[in-house]
Amino acid sequence: MSRLQITIAGWDYDRIRLLKDNSEAVEGCTSSYITLPPQETFFRLFRFQEFDVAEASFGSYMLARTLFDFPYVLLPIPISRVFSHSAIFIRTDRGIRRPQDLKGKRIGVPSFQQSRGHCVRGMLQDEYGVAPSDPLWVVAGLDTPEHLEHVPDQAPKGARVEVAPGHTLSAMLANGELDALITASTPSVWRHKAAHVARLFPDFRASEQAYYAKTGIFPVMHFIAVRRRLVEAHPWLPRALMKAFEQAKLAAMPFLTEIGALATTLPWLTAEAEDTMRAMGEEFWPYGLEANRTTIEAQLRWCREQSLTRRRWTAEEIFHPATLEWYHAVGTPPSPPQARPPRRTPSKAARGRARRP
């Protein structure tokens, strides 16, 4: 029996190296892994549906599923995830001392469908009462004058929006045309240490750890999507992909705590990994629906509240049915369902760092 030929597109994460290096890592398949930065993958996936399997922005995917019959189904593989607090940059001369001070401010965003932005807005509304309708949103390119729109963009219902063609958000924040900026990528205005620019949460690490301890939410930016027509013809493929991605992740994890030769150019990589495991558990980046249900259901709620979808989808609707029940592929016990993690109370010092003076 010949092997199925498939293309897989995504970024060069440590957790995919096994798939990238071994064309037969997916059972029954010969795969070609195409290494692309996320924005190029999304452009080619959502505009032209070029790939059999691809990394997909969650926000853009939900908007695409809402607006038309997008020919891909998701697998519960959160290939990219990032907490929200580090994404908010502010002018220090606008009286912004706490998240609630963002109400009525001019906030720049590259796009409303960007997953990082929809998670930041969800966190701000849930935790601090800042509704999407409270600020004035300015849409422009981050560091180049472009509008990142993989699917026709859709602003939150009731939101006040200005589009600034020919401008960049970094320049507008630096020169005072914006009060704040929410972005998935580190903006040049921050890299260049522009005057009067800071993060809303200076110790975002402590704020994000406290947020996880309270909510159990570890936001997902990108899932893996697979062409629906392909899995209809080969119903074994979704679970084969799940197993391959799981094995690739498990192969990468030991390098985070290996002290003999550091896998990443960070001198305290091991200390950071061990601290993360203390805060979030050893299985801090699980695959599968049940282990991520708290996060997924929160993000689906935010999608509805922010008009990315016309109704509130269920987790079972967006993932392929064959992957709804999952287990670890390589001999390790499965994580318990993520109804709510054990509550971890941040230390007094961490609580102090999480609050802005």
Output the number of helix runs: 13
Number of structural domains? 2
Mean pLDDT metric: 91
Low-confidence stretches: 329-345, 347-351, 353-357
Provide the CATH top-level class of the largest domain.
Alpha Beta
| CATH topology heading of the largest domain | D-Maltodextrin-Binding Protein, domain 2
Shape by Cα distribution: globular
Structural class: alpha/beta
The count of strands amounts to 11
| Residues in helix, % | 25-40%
Oligomer state equals single chain
Q: Strand arrangement, largest sheet?
A: 8-7-6-9-5-10
- CATH 2nd-level architecture of the largest domain: 3-Layer(aba) Sandwich
What descriptive keywords fit this protein?
single chain, 357 residues, alpha/beta, D-Maltodextrin-Binding Protein, domain 2, 6-stranded mixed beta sheet, 5-stranded mixed beta sheet, 34% helix, 18% strand
SSE topology:
Elements: E1 4-10, H1 17-21, E2 29-35, H2 38-48, E3 53-57, H3 58-67, E4 72-81, E5 88-91, E6 106-109, H4 115-128, E7 136-141, E8 160-168, H5 169-174, E9 180-182, H6 188-191, E10 197-199, H7 204-215, E11 220-227, H8 228-233, H9 237-252, H10 269-280, H11 293-305, H12 315-318, H13 348-354
Parallel strand pairs: 1-2, 1-3, 6-7, 6-9, 7-8
Antiparallel strand pairs: 3-11, 4-11, 5-9, 5-10
